[in-house]
Every structure is written in C-alpha cells, then in structure tokens.
Amino acid sequence: MEPNIFDKVQDVDLKKTMENAYIDYAMSVIVSRAIPDVRDGLKPVQRRVLYALQSLGVTPDKKTKKCATIVGETMGKYHPHGDSSIYGSLVYMGQPWSMRHVLIDKQGNFGSEDGDSPAAMRYTEAKMSRLAGEMLAGINKNTVDFMPNFSNEYEEPVVLPSRFPNLLVNGATGIAVGMSTNIPPHNLREVIKGVDCIIDNKIAGRKTEIEELLPIIQGPDFPTGATILGKRGIEEAYRTGRGKIKMRAICEIEPMHNGKNRILVKELPYLVYRSRVIEKIAELVKDKRIDGITYIHDAAGKNSKAKIAIECRKDVNPHVILNQLYKHTQLQETFGVIMLCIVRGEPKILNLLEILEEFLAHQIQVVTRRTQYDLQKCEDRAHILEGLLKALDHIDEIVAIIRAAKNVEEAKQNLITRFAFTEVQAQAIVDMRLRALTGLERERLENEYQDLLAKIAYYKEILGDERRLLAVIKEELDVIADKYGEDRKTSFSYDDILDAEDLIADDDVVITSTSLGYIKRMSPENFRQQNRGGKGIKGMQTIEKDYIEDLFMTTNHHYIMFFTNMGRVFRIKGYEIPEASRTARGTALVNLLPLQEGEKVNASLCLRDPKDEQDLILTTKSGMVKKTALSEYANVRRNGLIAISLKEDDQLIEAKLLSKDENIILVTKKGMAIQFNEKDVRRTGRSSMGVIGIRLNDGDEVIGMQESSQGENMLVVSEKGYGKLTEKSAFKAQNRGGKGMRCYKITEKTGDLVGFKLCDQDREILLITTEGIMIRMSLENISIIGRNASGVKLMNIDKDGDTTIASVAKVRESENDGEEDSEADPGEDADTEIAEINGEDTKENQEE
Question: Where do the record's region annotations for Disordered lie (predicted)?
C-alpha cells in the first residue's frame, strides 16, 4: 500500500518561517556579497578573483591572460554565482577612474569614465597589478585562515593578508539588504601616515585620539580629481562614520578670440558621467532655466585638457553661468559617506580611527603568523644542518655504518642509535650527496647555519616584543607608501566664508590689476630695488595694449572694494582673487565681478571692517568730488551697488578713505593742480552726484587725487618717462571749484602727465610701462624743484616704439620696526601703498 502523501505535510507558522528565511538571506547578502571586510577592504567576489589570479599564476611579472579564463577559474572553484558579477568585479578593479589604485592591470576595452560598457570577456585580458601583489604577499605562509569552497573540493582564503589599508585607499560601494556602504577612496601616503601615527602612539604606550588623525588624513582623494568644498562633512564622516561631502568640478573661464567666453570643465566629480552632464545642461538651456549658453560640446580627447567646453554669449557674465551650472547640474555633487564594513562577521559602521585600528590588528596577526611560519622553517632547516655538520665531523664512521646496512631503514636506525640523530636528521644524512664532503660545501653549510641562527634570533625578538613587531609593520607600510604612493588628485576649497577663513591664512598679499581688467594675487616677495635709469625686471605678462594699472598691499582676509568707471562698487575678500606668479597675466575681473559691457574697475581700496565710522571721497574725470559715509556701503550686494551718479561721458577715477580735516589735492593731465579742505565738500548720500572739485580747460581731465597727509612732496610722472618732486607747500589751499595752479610744464618731450602721488623723499616708487615692465627706485636721487618745471628722466623709454609710462606706484617699507607706520591701516592708502614688497625682513604692522 502506498504511503499517504499528506503524512509528509507539516504545519508551520508562515510568519516565523518567512522571518527566519529573510534574515538568513539578508545576512548572506550582507556578509557574502555586498559589504567589504574591514581587514582587506574587499568583497568576497573581489577576493576570489584575486586569489584565482594567484592560483592561475597570473602575477604582475607574468603575461596577461584572457578574462574568460580568469572568470572561469573563479566561478568553477570559488564563486558560486554568475559570470557577469565576476567579470563586473574584475573590470571594476581595473578601472583607474573607479579605483584610486587599480588592483588589475587591464588589456583591452574595460569601459570608459563616461559610463561606456567594457568589451566581452572573450576579447579582454588581465593580470594582477603590482599593488595587488602586496594584497596577497605572504598568503602561502599561514598568514590567514582558509575555508572550504562551495563544493568542499578546494580551499579559499577567508581574508587576504593585505599589506596596506585597502578599504580606505580604494573605498567601497555596495547595496545590501536594509543597509548600504559608501566609502570614498583616499590617498595611500596619507592613510599609511595615519597608521604610522597609531603605531607610534602604541609604541609610546598611549591611545590615539581621532584629532591626531584629522590633520594627517586630509580627506578623500578621488581618482577623477575635482575639488572638495569645505571640511565639515569630512570631519563629521571621520568622527561618526557618516557624513556628506560636497564635490565640485574643476572649471576655468577662458576668453575667446571673438570676444566671447567659454567655460572649460577640466575635472569632474567622482562617479559623474560626462555625457549625462552635457545632456542636463542641454535640457536646462532648452527649458530656459539657464540663459546665455550658445554651444556645448564634448571636448575630451587624447591631447585635450578639458572634458566639456561651454560657450557663452558676449553679453552674459560667465561667472554667473558657472554658478548656475554648479547649482543645477552634477558639476557639483554630494558624496554620502557610510563607512559600513564587516567586522568579525558582523556589519558595523566605524569611524576613521576604528577602521585603521582594525586594519592594524589584522596586520599584527598577519605578521605574527608569518614570523612564526618563517621561524619554524628556519628552525627545521637549522636542525637538519646541525645533523649534517655533526655527520661531517664523523664522516668515515657514518659511511661505514651506511655501507654495512642492508637497506636505508636499517642505516637510519643505526645512525640514530650510534649518534642520537633524530629521524629527520638521519634521513638528511642518508640523502646527503658526495659533494658535501668537499671543503667548500662544508663552509657553505656552516655559513648557512650561522645565517639561520641570526634569523631565528631576529624572529624570536619580533615575537617576544610587541614594540619590535609594530616597528616591522610600520617599516613595511612605509616601503609600500614610498613605492606606490602618489600626490593628491583632489584639492580642497571653501564652502562658505567661515570655511574660507579657516582654510586660508591671513597673510600679506600684493594685488595687481591691468587696464583691460586682469587681476591677480601675489606673494610680496617678488621685486628687488634697482637704481634710477635702469631697465627694470619683467613683471606681469600682458597682452597687446594692456598694462598694469593698479597695485596695492593688503591681506587675505581684508575686504577689497572695487569702484568702476560707471560709478558702481563691488566688494570681495582678498583670498577670492586667484593667486598667480609674478609673470602671469592673472584672471579677468569679469570672472570675479558681474561687470557690464564697457565697464571697468578704475579705483580700489581695502579695509578690515566696512562699517567703520569714516568717510569715503570719490573723484571723477570731469573734476567732480563726493563725500559719503563709508557705512552707506556696508551692505554691498553680489551684483554691485551704485556708488555715485555720473553725468554723461564722465567716469569715476578715484576713491579713498578720508580722515577728518584732511586737504584734498587733484591733478590734471595738462599739469594743473588744486588743493582744498575736505570740509569744503559737504557729505551727500550714496547715489548723489557730488560737487565740483576743479574747473577744467577744454581737453583736460583729472588723472589723480591724493590726501595731503600721504606725503610732503608732490611726485608727477609724464607718459614719456620724465618726472619731478615739488614741495606740497608750493600749492596754497584754495576753495574747491577753482582752476587751480600749474604744477608741471608740459612739452612735446615729456608728454601729458599720467601719474601723481604725494610722498616723502625717503620713499621708493614703482614705474610701470604699457609693456608691463616695472622699475623700482628711491626718490632720494630725484631733486625737489619748482612748480613750473619738467623735471628729469626717471625711466628709459624705447623711442621707436609705442611704449609709454602707464602708472606710478608708491612702495612702503618700514625701517623702524613699525614704530612710525604701526598705526597705518592697509586701507589708508589703498591705491599703491605696498609693504615688504621685496621680501626683506622689515614688516609694516597693519591695524586689525
């Protein structure tokens, strides 16, 4: 009779059964698929691929092998899943845009950083990279545990020895069940320095604090470069294991020959595809969410430094367009850090210190087991050598015992009985070749024995002293850092004002700008003093018809106010001006300020606090002056503020901070000057036009304004290199609005005046030509002469060319350790007051 099928049916609780099954499935995915181990930073499939390469002998010093062979070896012996996941992991480990240091040396099409798929595995080849060899170094020395594979036919490693912190160096990403991991890649040198710090503290007998690691491991180092905005997200991720890191593309605004500008995207954020960015920009332009882009194209190529080129219309500010792109596209992206990994079989979120400590604990175990293995091998060999050397001392008797024996076993037993050899030693003696009887061979055996004794002592020292063990680990890590380490690819920038102030030191800087609107920030240590009449040194590299127009000293954290010819004012901080070398042209101001067509900066000043109770005096080309409280300019918007209302064809040429009861001096290009007291100028509102300062003759215009306290002598310089000093007292104070007095004799040889400064005779000046040549000289060699004279030649000008003097700048250098000038604020004479410009030890104190 057949058994009833219903006898095999069992009643179960479906809820409990599903819970248990799902938990088993979830843990299998977490531990065996998606989450990396904290010790070697690898997922199981990655570990199995590398071990399959080892078992196939496809090491870094061998030829590449078909990827299909590698996948077949991995799938057949170790990984019980599909070939697509194995090949995907193999490809990922060979992509230099995915991993900071690749573990696979690829041959063939492994895809592209734009998201293109790799070729089929039958077309590609691969082998282990040199750094991957370090992951597996010592695996045959019992350094790690092995476990049976899925069929119990072969054994595979539970974890790789991993001689460097791969989890942080190459990062990891994976989605499991109910959890995910997202660890960014880091710089190999920085991470190893972090481990070194922990080792040094362990040797010193103290615990490492995470604050010690933060300055060493600066932040993620993505293989695609780009820049990270701010450090708050990094610090949060390092302290808690979770955080958000803002990444931004490296972009450059480049002027084009047709007067337009284009934005060149040079480096993209990690895991951002170029094609998707282009598609998104095209969509934004089509929907008119961004206006002003005329053309976008993929600029990537073998010889191209840019990945995307974005052309802008002539009438738009490319800086504004770029900010819009950062806001609406993946040119600015967030990397959500979740430092989840498998720790002793369990998924855990660790902070930076805990990850490095777990790696170090793994290395202590690996090096200990490796040393024990090497010690055992040395002791075994030394034991045999002891028997061989003892046998050589009694060779005749031993030969007789062996010859008399009927077989090998009898010979071994007779040797053990006669000389107390061990089984191993006796076997080695009967296997000994006749060449061992030569003198050279005996010497070789004795040398080998002494070397083994030294190694045994060394291994025992390591095993007996934890500090010695830690020193060995540190030494091996440093070798890897020196051998494989690279400079950072990802830079850091600031995310807001606070971050900027934290990242940038409040150092002295020199700001220079040109007549065509190029500006740059330089270190003050750039120029050396020369004698009058010299040719000077090469300054800024200018383009045709451009020349240096303004130059002044400030600090990174001071505000710089820019006044334009159209009567508007803008304000940025010193560090927001890009730094450049002495000969570089600099950055176009249109990239920093939203200037209109035809608008240029004519005056600038710097100050620490824009809310100071001080007046600002402005001067226009037509002779108008205006006095306004500085506090009215305290809230300057990003797109500027009206500083003065101008008549038609008039321009703002000068702006200065004003002291009370100060005399103002104006000079025109035709050699007229007027001096009047600031009390003659009534204070007016921010958008007013001002009052008449000097009445001009036809064809004349104001070239400069100075405050009486800026010096005792009037220095005027003509466009053909002539100049003179005249005592300030030669110009009596008048009421504003007059014609003024003659201050210079204009001739065909001298040309019109181009520069005017008030200064003392012990000061120095910089003369700047329209070709960008700068010469520095002392005023001590220039005589003080009368008002109606033409002066002396200050600088040789090429008579055959079109070169002329463009501007004159004063140099301030304190010779009395700051006693005289210690009260001077950088904004007091912001046009050209320069301190310590030649890099000498004297320094002018700046009032904070």
Answer: 811-848
